Amino acid sequence: MGKKFEGALDGEGRKFALIIGRFNEFVTSRLRDGALDCLARHGVSPGDIDEVWVPGAYEIPLAAQVVAEGGQHDAVICLGAVIRGATPHFDFIAGECVRGIGRVVAKTGMPVVNGVLTTDTVEQAVERAGSKAGNRGWDAALSALEMASLLEALPEE
Questions:
Q1: CA distance 126 to 132
Q2: What is the pTM of this model?
Q3: Is 42 a catalytic residue?
Q4: Each residue of 119-135: pLDDT tens digit?
Q5: What CATH number did the domain enclosing 107 receive?
Q6: Is residue 153 part of a domain?
Q7: Is residue 140 situated within a structural domain?
Q8: From 89, 102, 131, 134, the catalytic residue
Q9: Which residue blocks in the chain are alpha helix, DSSP H?
């Protein structure tokens, strides 16, 4: 059996960027709070967390790419909320946001974590931003902590 590599959940000395969509801010601010709480509880200093607010989910990938290419952070955490409406607008925005985040990961090789909610209702979004279904901002921050550590542990070949 070969070596086993895992990331740790210790954020001490690591820097993170939160890219947060302002659209549906009543939800995204709660995702932000969850992410900040997670990072703080895992040793990340408040001074090592930068926040970048963008108009909405569609703009998240561009800001994430600029931040990731800047090389100042160990991981980027994308937070947003796209809630289905009566038109197909939801499908376009949600799809482009997720694809864009994936492209940033592939292009930069940096952990860029998708914490963008895509829900059918406002109630589902609120549930996933800190009520019945936990806080997806917290979950995204936890993934970012683990991936930043894991990438550091992996051999560069």
A1: 9
A2: 0.95
A3: no
A4: 999 999 999 998 777 99
A5: 3.40.50.960
A6: no
A7: yes
A8: 89
A9: 25-41, 60-70, 89-108, 122-128, 136-153
